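Here is an idea for our session: we take a single protein and study its fold together. Start from the sequence, derive the backbone structure tokens from it, and show both lines together. Once you have written the record down, we can walk along the chain together:
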Amino acid sequence: MQRQGLCLVLLGLVVCLLAAGHLYAGHPGPSSSEPGWHPVEVDAAGAAFTGDEGGGLTGARPAYAQGYESYWDVLYLLARVIEGEAADEPFIGKVAVGAVILNRVRDARFPKTVAGVIFQPWAFESVSNGQMWRPLSGESIRAAQAALAGWDPTYGALFFWNPAKMVSPWIWTRRIITWIGRHVFAR
């Protein structure tokens, strides 16, 4: 009897998750009324900009791959990886992780979409270990917005790693550009 009850609960959970996914798929994107959410404006070409003249941003530009992906999908994925890779880093460190992903999209040696870069096998530890699916923080969302708006505190880095963790010796052959928080950024 307990087994049947457990099966019914699990079935109900699966149905709820499927329904929630279906409802989310039709969602046009987060609204400015949501707590912790400060969307940037998007121009007709899909380029994100903050309306801030200067402020450390390098200017408006479509930072996500030639129109293959929607702004909201890119923002969501970018924020997820930022949360998974840099949750305990300062804000600039979170932006830096997002900038590395966007720099890879622009580099011919990497996939041409944010999703392609993020889900490239073994590219990001948080994708491999599931940490990218932890609850999103408002700061990670704002960091993704800043990266999409053009702020690149890494000066074009394509790689980052935490030297306190096990890494391939190959990564140390990359030219180090800067250190931000606990991460090393390199080209």
